[in-house]
Amino acid sequence: MSQTSPRAPRKAIVLAAGLGKRMLPITATMPKPLVKVAGQSLIDFALDKLHEAGVETVVVNVHHFADMLEAHLSTRETPRIVVSDERSELLETGGGVKKALPLLGDEPFITFNSDSLWIEGKEPNLLRLVQAWDPDRMDILMLVAPLSTSIGFEGRGDFHQDSDGRLRRRGTDDSAPFAYAGVAIVKPELVHGTPDGAFSANAFYDRAIAKERLYGLCLEGQWLHVGEPQAIAEAEQCLAASKQ
């Protein structure tokens, strides 16, 4: 494994508390992070990538079928896993990060959507993200995927990217070339002073954009957006083809 930077995040949060409504009927009997693609659960993909990138402690928030998810997590030895219990209230992506902040500490950390899946290029994308992190210039560095090569994503794109790597939202444009690929490095200061209760992580991104400190790293390989049941087979076909 390549050496990670001394400033590389050592902690992460995997956002695994959502109801996964778009993945029904599968999520009527299990949490979405335990859905398997090519024999591996989505959350194990995330945890393996984080371990590979040198992350030592991963917070996993739980709500939907929390007991089932905790039982699965208890079977893993690496990385070290700490559960953030959201059984009493669904907090969305931003609220989930805020609740977990005491567990994440005062240093920049990685947020990882539990349904983010991709085929690697030449270098592991999470390792590339960690190595590209520059806290002097950036408040957030997110992995973005080109719509042109992504599978299973039906949206019009989230971001435009300037030549220096800064991101700006699609805004009123018909489309934008990049989608958020579900992984970002975030400074904890962006979480301070946000509302209590449920809110979206977009609040963090907007704070970084306001300071022109939201940057993107283009994913190499292929992003597989597994949002709905029919996307599983498509993702499995891509994974199988990549190994031939």
Automatic annotation (TrEMBL):
Keywords: Nucleotidyltransferase, Transferase. InterPro entries: GlmU-like, NTP_transferase_dom, Nucleotide-diphossugar_trans. The keyword Nucleotidyltransferase applies. Residues 11-131 form the Nucleotidyl transferase domain. Gene3D superfamilies: Spore Coat Polysaccharide Biosynthesis Protein SpsA, Chain A. This is Nucleotidyltransferase family protein.
